[in-house]
Amino acid sequence: MKFLDDRLQETKNTLNQSENAFNQYLVQHSVVGMQLVGQLSERKLNTLEMQIEQLRSQQEELLQIYTPKHPLVIASYNKEKELKKRLEGVKAELLTYPQKNQEESHLKSSILLNNRIYTVLLNHKMQMEFSKAGLTSDLVLLSDATPPTTAATHRLLMTLVSCLIGAFLSSLLLLLRHLLNQTIEDATQLEEAVPLSVQCVVPFSQKQKHMDKLHQKTLKAVGSGLATTPLILAKQDPHDIAIESLRSLKMSLHINASNPNANLGIIALMGCVSGVGKSFTSLNLAQVFADSGKRTLLIDADIRKGRLHRACHLPQSKGLSELLENKLDYSTLTHTIHHNLTLLTCGTHTEHPLKLFQNTFFANVLSQMKADFDQVIIDTPPILPVSDAVLIALQCDIKLFVVSAGIDTIAN
Fold this sequence. Notes:
There is one protein chain. The protein has 2 domains: 2-116, no CATH class; 187-402, P-loop containing nucleotide triphosphate hydrolases (Rossmann fold). 57% of the residues lie in helices and 7% in strands. It has 15 helices and 6 strands. The chain has a 6-stranded mixed β-sheet with strand order 3-4-2-5-1-6, with helices on both faces. The N and C termini lie far apart (89 Å).
């Protein structure tokens, strides 16, 4: 034991000296381990290659909608060239790293050898200590084992019963929720609950969902500065079934009017809550009127949370709130979106939007807009949270109420 203790102390000192010498060599020569260099370089190469593959995938999605000369596509190609240039730079940088020199290898070998010797000696010392301690056990038997007095539980049966009970309770909860909060599922159910006729049914558009999803990816990739095409389904895909339904609505409004050949005046789009498709209907119905040759003005009257300017890629600058608050000329605040389609945004938020619609100036400016345009469409705020839409509807000729299947309830 004394011999092993002496050898262990001597070997430990030698190992410490080898490690100190290796550390001093690294500090003096600023040497980076080749394994670390390889890991860092490989990680950098993989990152750049992954970014290039993601960018190419985005290019394929962009080319399905835009031409190769579109600013979004050009920006994506420029970014790919930049990533490829950085990739070549990393590959060239790898060739400049110094290779592991002979002295570094010698120092590492010395550390490994001394470490192995120290481990072997330590194992021998532990074996001798176990032998010296002997094989006598210090365990004491307290009591003999006895067989169980109760039967084993049937875990499989309990699991199946628990699953059945959980499924039953979940179904019961869904049934109670459906009975307490009945949502409107079709036009027939709506006409039975409300004494008004349904003018049209607008199906859900998968094309619009794809456009919104692609728009979000584009904003994350290249930012909002290059996104210039308005997200108007009636312009991107005029033959979509949802747009055909809006054309039928336009024809139905003309047929039901007292003078089918005259303009319809001011149309208000209303809804119970947000997220029912009111803004989608307003924007695309306005585009349908514009495509038919009508000089159309679309007004975003949701001063609190208006978002039509986002769909048309416009900044949230001066709009309806500034018009009513400062009594400005509305023609200086409008934006031309397409031929025959003009947009008046909601403007910046104000603390008292309800007072703006109670002012007589609001009624006067609507009369002026009605005289200047063939058709005026107003996207109103939701009715249940605020009462702005009620005041707006008093100044409109036609009130269209948007009801979303699966969202709106009969109680609403």
